[in-house]
Amino acid sequence: MDIARTHPEAASPLPSVDVAWQLLIRAHLVDPDATEDVLAQPQVGVWAAHALRRLVHHSATATDAGRLWKDLGYLHTLAAAAAVRAGLSFELDVPARYGLAVLPTVGAASLPPRCHRARVVARDGAVTMTDDIGQRTSPGDRHWHHPIRLTVAAGGVTLRIEVVDRDVYRNLRGTAAPAPLDDDQVRRWEALLRRAWYLLVREQPARARSIAATLRTIAPLPAGQRFRPLSASGTEAFGGVLLSEPDDAVQLAATLVHESQHHKLGALTHLLTLVRADPNRRFYAPWRDDPRPIGGLLQGSYAFAGVTEFWRIRRLHAVAGDADLAAFEFALWRRQTRYALRELLESSQLTDHGRRFVEMLHRTVCDSQKEPVSTGPRILGDRMAIDHYALWRAHNLRIGAAGPALAAAWASGDSFPTWILDEPTAQPMALPDSGPAWFDTRAVLVRHRLTDAAAFDQLCAESDVIGTRVTGATAADLALVSGDDAQARTGYLRQLAGDSPGGKTLAHSCIGLGLTWSDDPAHPAARALLHRPELVMETLRHTTRGDTTLGVPDLVGLAAWVGDGLARAQTSRSDWAGWPVQDRAS
Predict the structure, then answer these.
(1) What is the DSSP string of 372-441?
(2) Which of 27, 364, 575, 581 could form a disulfide with 86 if both were Cys (CB 3.0 to 4.6 A apart)?
(3) What is residue 240's three-state secondary structure?
(4) What confidence tens digit (pLDDT) does each residue in 443-475 have?
(5) Is the whole-model pTM more than 0.85?
(6) What distance, in Å, lies between the first and last C-alpha atoms of the chain?
């Protein structure tokens, strides 16, 4: 408010922010519970952070002012919504966007597309919205849209949420165009939520009660590829979840657990400082494609500690194909989460509160390692963990200073220069922003295989188009997941023959090749490709220039050359403390 008052022109053509603020105060005096419910909506936090950034960076240009008044005008919509619910009589103009004027928790009115504001008129709790040409809309009219409220109950535990599909601030990253659900979509969400809630209350009642106490809204997104749900939450939007339509109720239940962990830790970090972040250092997060700062690693670790526990319990109740999937997920995430927690403990970036918190999590996750898991899913979980780790290193780490020496030694037939492993100027650095790279591709194929063998066989029969079904997947991946290492190796070598040094598929093919020595994990080529793939990648970059296909006739030989060098080396260097960030200009 103080900053907004320094830009009185920014709210025009709406009334000043003080007018809206005074109406909000009146509503709170009459009905504090309703007013606080409006202000506690997750999208309000997103709006407040977004509007504050806009005000701080506000310029005097007409274009900027034309956008800013709609952001500031969300305060007017909040005041109007609270006043309607408090039963006040008032008139107030509010902004319209994308042909909609939204009053959070009250409803929305469809308006002509060119309409940029609407007048809200309320008399004793009855509300009407009038557009620029005088057309009126009120509850009960065909252009009025009531909030989508879903209530599900099981075992005496009730979950009440609103599905927010029209509010422009439902997205965690700023504004987003409305994406209204139709009646069929609403029914699907309600059915999935009811089944997921029954599962959670029956199998994990304490966690269900926690979710019921924190979850307020779901902002729906379209369904993605199978086994690739999209979900997100943020500390500025407590109780809100951005969520793609899930594959099934089990996936929805696991996602609700995941996001509720973020909600709880987000609340805790408002009370306690858990990390002292070094902005120039990044870490490996086993669930992300990109290098992460310490705060992001902590958030993910707490979320996946909850996911690990979800699958630990879920596998005890699952039947048939679901049982193998649950065992695989438990084996995978207990390993990945333990790794991340050890990184946190070794990082030197935790406060005393943070260390106690992480030590507690670490003990819990380590205890889960003792639980037996059937051999097949356990081995698959371990292999997919290795796959992700190696892909991450190959994609995100650079050792440019050592590249020329590696390429020269390989080209001349010399032994691998082991001195590079301890040379300070040749230590790996993390890319600042690497972008998505589909490191989960082979794990997604494993999930297909475990849940529906017949459907997986059909994928194998259509291997030439697998990339259209599972982004990033190749025929060689299908062979690998099917257990045919020889065919997979042939496929990856064929792919590598057509890859370029800067191509996006190079790392995927190299790591896939490393995984084909499942019966001989100590093979020198596997050692290099699965544990220090960045050394192989750097040699390739300095051996072949430009966008031509790789000019290395014996990639297995190159990887084995690096692997033999790693076996000979005596190095004590540890990667637990993360990596410095590579200069963007490098």
Answers:
(1) ---HHHHHHHHHHHHHHHHHHHHHHEE-GGGHHHHHHHHHHTPPP-GGGGG-GGG--EE-S------TTH
(2) 27
(3) strand
(4) 999 999 999 999 999 999 999 999 999 999 999
(5) yes
(6) 43
